[in-house]
Design a protein that fits this description.
This protein is mainly α. Helix content is 60%, strand content 0%. Bound molecules: iron/sulfur cluster.
């Protein structure tokens, strides 16, 4: 990786191989974006179809919430203890999707987050927009870099904030099991996205907007700090037999890997990623 595109200082993931023509298009990154776009479009189609056709027409369509894997986790207790019953807004499809997401986590770790999740994709889009704008507007770039430098002092706090998602996971799953309804639904930006075509206002709309605004400054803030589904699949991913191992004997500590990592992982000091 000798020739690099111009990196934006302090921006993780800004260092990329400088490829041209077809080679630049046939990278795994392009394939990943196409896959993400495909899943996001599918979910958008289901959401719109349910509202526009399903409610007023003769065709019965499933709510887009039937395609939320986290709904499967929220209803799991009721499903097991209630002989196949579900809490409201959930469906057998949620449990099936949950099983698929957890199987993917076990075999391919964060592949669901990186390749499929529409909320992850939206955050990526905003981050990419930010990167493009920073390239063309130097004053914006300087402002964001300066903000990040100030924010770097809070790095230790950031490390602890990463544990918030486990608390959210415990609250969402435990609360749903205890109270018998989805206690986190109204705050969950995933649910907000799935119900976006309904145009109803919930606290989740605010959480979604804050997440997207924050994505302009940091990579995937919701995923890093608050996502219970990411937390659940992350826990399972920890026992996955598949991981990347850094060859310490070949490492020159050039930090290109760390600068290229969109999630801000200190790859150059890690043993396994
Ligand atoms: S962490 Fe959550 S929001 Fe982020 S990509 Fe994974 S499932 Fe989606």
């Amino acid at each position: 990786m000798s020739a690099q595109s111009k990196p934006i200082p302090g921006t993780p993931g800004s260092v990329k191989p400088h490829l041209k023509g077809l080679k630049a298009l046939s990278t795994h990154q392009t394939f990943r974006r196409i896959t993400q776009l495909g899943f996001a479009s599918f979910i958008a189609f289901l959401a719109i179809q349910h509202v526009v056709i399903g409610k007023n027409g003769e065709i019965v369509t499933a709510s887009a919430e039937a395609f939320c894997p986290f709904g499967g986790l929220e209803t799991l207790y009721k499903y097991i203890t209630g002989g196949g019953a579900f809490i409201s807004h959930t469906h057998l499809m949620d449990v099936i999707l949950l099983t698929a997401v957890l199987a993917v986590a076990l075999l391919l770790r964060s592949a669901f987050c990186g390749w499929i999740c529409p909320l992850g994709f939206l955050q990526d889009l905003v981050s990419n927009l930010s990167r493009v704008l920073q390239k063309h507007i130097p004053s914006l770039r300087r402002g964001i870099v300066s903000l990040k430098k100030r924010g770097a002092r809070l790095a230790v706090l950031g490390r602890y904030l990463c544990y918030v998602k486990y608390i959210v996971l415990a609250w969402a799953v435990g609360g749903s099991a205890y109270f018998g309804y989805m206690v986190f639904r109204d705050y969950y930006p995933w649910s907000t996205l799935l119900n976006i075509a309904e145009f109803t206002f919930t606290p989740g709309v605010i959480v979604l907007v804050v997440t997207l605004v924050a994505s302009f400054f940091i990579e995937r803030p919701w995923c890093c700090y608050a996502c219970p589904l990411g937390a659940a699949s992350g826990i399972l991913g920890k026992v996955s037999p598949i991981y990347l191992k850094r060859d310490a004997s070949a490492c020159t500590s050039c930090k290109i890997c760390t600068k290229a990592c969109p999630m801000g992982i200190e790859v150059h000091t890690a043993t396994a990623i």
